C-alpha cells in the first residue's frame, strides 16, 4: 500500500469515528487508534486477512451503505472484525469484539454505539444476521463478497487462505475447507441485501461449487 492509499484509509477511519461520536473537543485524536489497528492488520501471520481485505470490506460497505441503519458503525465494525487474527485460534472474533469494547469508549464512542460495533464483530462468527438486522446484513455481505470474485481473484483468495493455514496437513485442510463450503452452499442464501442477492449470489455459488469439486479430486503430492 502506497502513501496515498494509506492516507485515504486513515481518512476513512477518521471520518467513520467522527461521524459516529459526538463533537466533544475533549475526545482524543482518532489517528493513534488507526495506527494501532493498522499495525494489527499488518501482522506477519496474515495472508488473506490483511489490510487489502480491510480495504475491500470497506469498499463493499460503501456500495451497500443504503441498506444499513448506521453505516458508520458498520464501517467501524469492519475495522475491528479481524483486528485480532491468529489462524490457529477459534476466538478471534470474540477477542476482536473485546478490543472494540475497550478501544472505542476511550476514543469517544458512546456506550450504545460501542455495543453495536461489538455485536456486529461477533456476528462475523456465523455471518447469519437475523431478519431485519440491516447493519448485520451489510457487514456480513461485505465480508463474504470475496466469494463472488472473478476466477483469478477467487483463486488468489483460496491460495492466501491456504497459506494462513500452512500448519494444517493437506488432507485435514481439504476436509475442513470442504465442510465449510458445503455449509455455505446449504444456506438458502449467502447474501442478505438486495444488491448482494442480485449481484453476488450466482457467482459466489459457482465459485464455491467449483472449489468444492477441486478439493474433492485433489491428491497429496507424491513424496
Description:
The structure is a single chain. The protein has 223 residues and is mostly helical. It has one domain: Hypothetical protein af1432, CATH 1.10.3210. Helices cover 66% and strands 0% of the residues. The protein contains 10 helices and no strands. Helix 3 crosses helix 7 (134-144), helix 5 packs antiparallel against helix 6 and helix 9 runs antiparallel to helix 10 (194-217). The radius of gyration is 18 Å and the shape is globular.
Keywords summarizing the entry:
Hypothetical protein af1432, mainly alpha, 223 residues, 0% strand, 10 helices
Helix content: 55-70%
Class by helix and strand content? mainly alpha
Order of helices and strands: HHHHHHHHHH
CATH topology: Hypothetical protein af1432
Q: What is the C-alpha radius of gyration, as a whole number of Å? A: 18 Å
CATH architecture: Orthogonal Bundle
Mean pLDDT: 95
SS element count, helices: 10
Q: What's the overall geometry?
A: globular
Q: How many strand units? A: 0
Main beta sheet:
none
CATH superfamily: Hypothetical protein af1432
Q: At the first level of CATH, what is the class?
A: Mainly Alpha
Low-confidence stretches: none
Percentage of residues in strands: under 5%
Distance between the ends: 39 Å
Number of domains: 1
Quick recap:
This protein has 223 residues and is an all-alpha fold. It has helices at residues 3-20, 31-41, 51-64, 71-80, 92-106, 111-123, 134-144, 151-164, 170-186, 194-217.
